[in-house]
Amino acid sequence: MHDKHRQSPETSDSAREKKPAGNARFSNQSGKKSKTRSHEPKRPRKVTRDYLMNYATWYLERFAASRARLETLMRGKIRLSVAEHGTDPDEAVQWMNSVLSACEKAGFINDDAYAKGRARSLLRRGKALRVIAADLSSRGIASDQVDAALTELRAEADDAAYEEVRGTDPNIAAAAAYARRRRLGPWRRSEIREEKREKDMAALARQGFGYDTATRIINSEIEELEDLLSMIDGI
């Protein structure tokens, strides 16, 4: 990706006007106060294949995205261009598909890698596996790719685990990671821990963890959870 794409394609050439020299307060030689320029809403850009390619490149330089996510964004651009400029929608969709294919061929879009990387990141943040699966599905990742990402994630967590906890459900380790991140249960100050117990249990339940898992984490001591956390910290 080249530097020429680093400016958002949303900025039109007409918007790149030169700034007046010197202090703008004194640029009006007549001594009259300068008028405030009205800010009219920007017109949507007219979609072309080049515009869609520039937009895709600009976006992917900044954000990881699935093919479905990028397609959704480009379809939004197309709808606006059709309404504002009379762009042929069928031709625009052909341009979009061409751009998506080019991005995949270049390796800028890779749904398998995206799914595995996002699943790993969410587990580190203490998300339950079923929550991770739902997140990936909502981002347009195919069900077989979601299954493959979760299978690999389980294997990575097991490989990273200390020998004493290998074979443990990663959901339990994720619950411990979430409790640590939010300072729940054993990470609370001792004088308020019992008072906050039900609240902490409810917090884990809202994250998709079952009652038994939540009870195990909230009732444990930090030292008892260190082995479990190796499953998270090692991936």
Molecular structure report:
This is Regulatory protein RecX. Residues 110-150 form the RecX second three-helical domain. It comes from Thalassospira indica. Residues 32-46 have a biased composition (Basic residues). Residues 1-5 and 12-30 have low confidence and may be disordered. The protein has eleven helices and no strands. Helix content is 60%, strand content 0%. It has two domains: 3-28 and 42-109, no CATH class; 112-233, no CATH class. It has 235 residues and is an all-alpha fold. The protein has helices spanning 49-62, 67-85, 89-106, 111-124, 129-138, 143-160, 170-182, 190-193, 197-206, 211-219, 222-233. It is elongated and about 65 Å long.
Q: What is the typical, i.e. mean, pLDDT? A: 87
Number of structural units classed as domains: 2
Structural class: mainly alpha
N-C termini distance? 29 Å
- What share of residues is helical? 55-70%
Number of H/I helices: 11
Q: Which spans of ≥5 residues are poorly predicted at pLDDT below 50?
A: 1-5, 12-30
> Which value, in Å, is the CA radius of gyration?
26 Å
H/E element order: HHHHHHHHHHH
Shape: elongated
Q: Largest sheet, described in full? A: none
The total of beta strands comes to 0
**Strand fraction:** under 5%
Question: How do you describe this structure in short?
Answer:
With 235 residues, this protein is mainly α.
Q: Which features characterize this protein?
A:
235 residues, mainly alpha, 2 domains
